[in-house]
């Protein structure tokens, strides 16, 4: 393709280090689509004759059919998917194939193909996240009023509902969805027609190719168009943030599935056994989701470091942009699907959650709040009195609500039997009706709002 000024071919190692076909063959559909758009435009602009364009388009269809059947070949001589497509086109249609590369460079070609690929990747991720969100909403709805311990420092803090806890993840993932949507909107400009770096002297129509490929318009600067990969980094940043959220949820599943917690039983489909310990049911999928998040972060770091020192415009370093994006995408897609499956099929052990919520003096804050409200104490004093009540309950080995009223009144004369109304975990969660709070009424409201927004799209 570029041998005109060379007397000798490249060495075998040169070939190997230079070739990107082993990974960029994954963009063959995008490569064909971009070539079709480019050829069509060349015809419409009178740059290439109509019969040649017709031959090129027919030839590209034939190449696509070959790719569909056998995939692109791992042929290092042809370097990359762009050269392989052109070479195959030449095999099919002969001379007119040589006209396809008019007013185009592999630099704007790869920038275009890769944007198209990342755009498709975002659409796939968004579809996966939609299923995950629906699973979270379903399970949250089932457990809107089931009480579990809420933690800070992983110490029992205040009771919450399982529905509320799951909806926290729904919120996080909703922001991830919006990050992907933002990235998609921002990247949706077409670099095709930037040519090698400076644009072209041919009378091309960049609006036409951009529109044909579903972009909002062409990129405005040819140097930028061929040499930035911020669109890929936007994708990786959104992917990393999303993976991080999935990792926290996965970590909770790992903890909750452990015997000391016993909050969740993962279904058989999402558990693995041990080759030596017959009793084991290991949460491997959750552990791998947690693990994959580290690799996804590594992919983002890799591309950032690749890009950070490159002068404008294209440098071959940029060929290394694709493996980390492909890897991160595969890991993320798997993680989302695995998390969705685990959530859909998990059995939440609500009786056990309730027992634990009931055992940790988790309604102590409710007692302090009651003292403020009903006995007029300043909160600091109420906190101190409640601390003494907890110490007494601990000494007697009973829950707060099981303390005799005489014991309570002995600690503070303002405490009356009415206090028992707030000491149960159900009363505690029901009282937390502030917007965004854990009261079952609020949780159901949040679920309904989220469902309505999702149906609207
Ligand atoms: N395979 C190359 C890549 O992925 C395509 C662009 C090659 N451009 C060049 N001037 N050598 O970046």
Features:
single chain; 457 residues; mainly alpha; 4% strand; binds arginine
General shape: elongated
Please state how the strands of the largest beta sheet are arranged side by side: 1-2
Q: Approximately how much helix is present in the residues?
A: 55-70%
Q: What count of helical segments does DSSP give?
A: 19
Largest sheet: 2 strands, antiparallel
- The assigned structural class equals mainly alpha
Give the C-alpha Rg: 30 Å
The poorly predicted ranges are none
Number of strands: 4
What do the pLDDT scores average to? Answer: 96
As an assembly, this protein is single chain
Distance between the ends: 47 Å
Bound ligands, each once: arginine
User: How large a portion of the residues is in β-strands, by DSSP E?
Assistant: under 5%
Order of helices and strands: HHHHHHEEHHHHEHHEHHHHHHH
